[in-house]
Amino acid sequence: MKVSKTSFEGALIVEPDVFKDKRGFIMETFHRHRYSQEGMSADLVQDNLSFSEKGIIRGLHYQFPNAQAKLVQVIKGEVLDVIVDIRMGSPTFGQWESVILSGENKRQFYIPPGFAHGFCVLSAAAFFAYKCSDFYVPDSEGGILWSDPDIAIDWPVDNPILSTKDGQYPCLRDILPDRLPLYEK
User: Fold this and answer.
1) CATH at 95
2) From 29, 73, 83, 178, which residue has the greatest number of CB atoms within 10 Å?
3) Structural domain containing residue 100
4) Is 31 a catalytic residue?
């Protein structure tokens, strides 16, 4: 597998080894020992799968407390996957980064705790799978408005399809500091 660093410490792009033949392909999507050696040592405890259609944005979501690391990938389709550093005191606080994930490129994105996460579906539809390092805790759920002008994510849609909740989240500047994780070197 090939692992590439991003501009955020701990956030990694993973390109698993894919073995193809006339029948199709096989790939290892997770191996605790190998992923841990590459810096992805979170204990992943929950798997999720979502289906979304073109033009849908899901996010920007996070949990605090009970922050989650995530290992995300697209099984079928294509998305623009986005993370935002929300760690108070981080030198990259409020900055974002994105990567294209697709069933074709088979990339994975490892997102450490302390980041808000979201994605926009670029293809007609997408199956999006992710592993989390902590269970979903409704009282820890948080979110940032997808169109926060201070973050200024360059989304590929002007009028996305959103859940009611995603359309009503506050901007990052309006979230109380005690509702955000702290940066730890």
Assistant:
1) 2.60.120.10
2) 83
3) 2-179
4) no
Report yes or no on 140 lying in a domain: yes
Q: Are 181 and 88 in contact (CB under 8 A)?
A: yes
- Asked if residue 108 lies in contact with residue 99, where contact means CB atoms within 8 angstroms, the answer is no
pLDDT at 185 over 90: no
Residue 184 lies in a domain: no
**Residue 92 belongs to some domain of the structure:** yes
pLDDT, one tens digit per residue, over 93-132 is 999 999 999 999 999 999 999 999 999 999 999 999 999 9
Q: Is 61 a catalytic residue?
A: yes
Overall pTM surpassing 0.85 (yes/no) = yes
| CA 1 – CA 34 distance, rounded (Å) | 9
Q: Which of 35, 62, 110, 130 is catalytic?
A: 130
Question: For residue 154, what are its two tokens?
Answer: 């360059």
Catalytic residue among 31, 61, 136, 169: 61
Distance CA 61, CA 50 (A): 14
Read off the pLDDT of residues 13-27 as tens digits, 9 standing for 90 and up. Answer: 999 999 999 999 999
